[in-house]
Amino acid sequence: MRSLVPASGAFICFGDDRTVSYAHSWRMVEDTVKPVRRRDGINLAQAFGLESRDVVRTARRAYRTVELYTDDIRKNLPYFRDNSAADAFVRALLVPLHASGSLFGICGLERRQEEPDFTRVDLQRAEQVAPFVLAATQAHMKSNELQKEATALHSLASCGGTLLAVDRGKRCVTWVASSEEGVDWPAQVNPLVDEVFALAISQDDARGQGDRIAPTSRLCERTVLGISNIEDDSLFGSGACVILHLGALDGESGPEDKLSTREQEVARLLVAGYSRINIAALMGLSENTVRTYMRRLYTKLGISNRVDLVRELIGPTRKWSPHARSNRSHSYTSG
C-alpha cells in the first residue's frame, strides 16, 4: 500500500473484532517493523474508535481520520495514543478490512507533521488496493489456521500411533502420519488398503447412526482412538475423507479386551456420558439388560462405578495407551 500512497508509517491488525485481534498486530515506522503497543482488554474497534456494525455496512474502504473524529479525539484513542504519538505521527488513513458482514482487521498509513495531508487521490488509491489487501489478509489467516490444524494433527500423532486419511470415493488411503519409526508405504500400507477402508467406513457409518459410538476396533494390533470427516478440502484431494487415529497397543492386552462386544459398547457409551435410559434406547435394549451389562463389565474390570470406569479406560492410569517409539513425526502422501 505504501508503494501507491507514500507514508512514513503503516500498520495492520489481523483477526476479527476481539481483544486477541488487536494483540496480533504489527506496524512499520520507516523501514523498521515494530510491535503494536497495546493495553489489556482493548479490542480492535475500541483501539480505533470505530463501530464494527457501521463499518461493515458500507462499501467504502478507506477513510481519513479527520473525517472520523477531531484531532483531540484521535490523540486519545488507544492505538494512536500508545503508538502514533511516540513516533510523531499526526494524521492517518484507515482501511477497515471486511467482507460478507464480518470485520477481518484494520490496516492503515500514517504521516508526520512535515508530510502532506492525505488527499482524495490517496483515498482513491487506497480504495483500489483495499480488495487485494483483504484477499491477502484472508489468505494469511487461512494459512495460519491450516498450520495450526497441521500442528494439532501432528501433535496427536506424536502422542503415539498413526493418522490415516481414507478417501471414500477412491477407496484408498491418501495420507499417513506416524510418530513411530516411519511408514514403509509399499510394505505397510498397500497390503492393508482394503482392511483400512472397510474399517474407516464401518466406524464412520456406525458413528453416524443416532450418535451411536462405534465399538472398539482393531487393525494390525492397533486400537481406533478417534475418527472424523473432512469434506472438499484441497489438501486431501477435495473428496470425502475419513480420518482415523490409530494407537499402538502395549504388549499386554488392554482392559477392553476383557469385555464382550456388547459390554465394550456399553462401556464406551458410559464413558461418553450417556445415561442407562439413553444407552438402552441407542442399543435397542431394555434398561434392565443395560444394568446387567454394567454389572458384568464392572465385575470384569474390578471397579464399582462410572468414575472408576473412566479412569480405567481413558484416564492417566489406563492399562492400554498409545505409545511413541520416537518423538519424531513422519507424514506421507500417496502418489
TrEMBL record:
Alphabetized Gene3D superfamilies for the sequence: 3.30.450.40, Winged helix-like DNA-binding domain superfamily/Winged helix DNA-binding domain (1.10.10.10)
| Annotated protein name in UniProt | LuxR C-terminal-related transcriptional regulator
> Lineage of the native species?
Bacteria, Pseudomonadati, Myxococcota, Myxococcia, Myxococcales
Question: Which Pfam family, an example, fits this chain?
Answer: GerE
Report the leader peptide range. none
Keywords, alphabetical? DNA-binding, Transcription, Transcription regulation
CDD domains the record matches: LuxR_C_like
Q: Which residues form the HTH luxR-type domain?
A: 252-317
Q: Does the keyword Transmembrane apply?
A: no
